[in-house]
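User: Fold this; C-alpha cells only.

Assistant: Input:
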Amino acid sequence: MPVSSLSSSFSSSRRRIAVVGGGVLGAATAAQLARRGADVVLVTDSDLASGASGRSLSWLNSFGGPGVRSAAYHDLRMLGLDRYRTFAHRVPSSSAYLRFDGGLTWAPPGAPEPHRSAFAHLRRCGYDAVWLSRDEVADWTPGVDPAAVPDEGAIFNPGEGWVDLAALVRQLTADLTEAGGRIVTGAGAASVVVERGRARAVRTGAGERIDVDAVLLATGAAVPRMVQAYGVTIEDATPVALLVRTPPVDTPLRAVLNTPRVAVRPAPDGSLVMDSDAAAEEVVVHPDGSYEVKDATVEQLLREASAVLEGDPVLTAASYGVGPKPIPGDGEPVFGELGEVPGLFVAFTHSGATLALIAGELLADEILTGEPSPLLAAFRPGRFG
C-alpha cells in the first residue's frame, strides 16, 4: 500500500481535505473525495483497519423490530445495501470478501414474540423476510444444525450479507491512491488545529502539521472525546466488543447467523468469525485501558458457535480482537459538520459496515459542495445540544 510522507505538499488548485481515521468510514469517504477531484490525505494512528473495522462481525443488514431505529436510519441502511451491490458490480474481485447469502436469526426457545413482531414490521417495510420452520432451515441455509433452531422456527432474510472490512479497506485505499490521494499510517494520535474559528490543519502525534481546507474525523469511538475540546457533546454508548476468529473450517455455512447466544459468519479464507454480547461483557477493562480476555470466555463462545453448526464441529481460536465498538448515545448515526467549528466534519456510528459506502458518498459531497444532504438531516451532531 503506497504511503506518503508528510513533506508532500498539497496542490494549491484543489480543495485540500484530511481524513483522520483508517477504518472503513474514513477510507470510503477519502476515496470518494479523491474521485471528486479533491486533494486528499488519509491519516491514521497505526495501520489501516486496525481499530473497530478490524474486529467487526460486519453483518450487512437493516434487521429490526418496531422502534429499534428511526425510519430515516432504516432508509439509509437500505441505501447502504444498495451501494454494496453497485460496488460488487464495479469490483468483481470483491466476491471473495463481499457476500449476500442471507441472514438467519431466531429467538430463545419459548420466547418468539419479539421476533414475530420484528418479522411483521420487516414485512410492512418491504424488507425481504421469510419465516422458516425448523425442517425448512437446512434448505435455505446449509451448514446450520436444525436441532439448534427452536420449535417456533427462525427468520431468514435473503437480502442480507457480510463483508470483510479489512479487505474492503484495502480496495478503497487502492482507489484513493489511484485517484491521487495519499495515506499516512503510523501517525500517532492526530489532532485538529482550529484557528480563527475554523479547522485549518491536522497535527500528527509526531507534531507535524498538514494544512487543509476541511477535516473529517472518522476515528471511531474516539470521536466524542476528540470533539469535547471544542465544546461539542456527542452522547456516547460505546461498549467493548470481542471478535473471535477460527482457523479454516470445513463447513458449508454461507449466511450470517444471529442466534440468542452467538453470532457467526464465514470469512474469505474459510475461517469463521463470531461474537456475542455475553462474551463481550466478560472482558476485563483494566484501569490503564488495557483489556483482558479470559480463555474460558473464548472457549465458551467457540462452543456456542459449534452448537449451531451442522455436525457440531470442534472449533478452536486462531486469534481474537478486542476493543471499543462505536455506538452513539441514542443509537443513531452522527454525520456532518460541527456547527461550532466550520470545516470540521465527523462520522460516528454503530453500523459502520452497512453504512460505509453510502455515508462516504454523502459526506464527500457535503464536504466539497457545502450543501447538506437531506439524507443525513436526522443525524447531525448538533442534535445533542
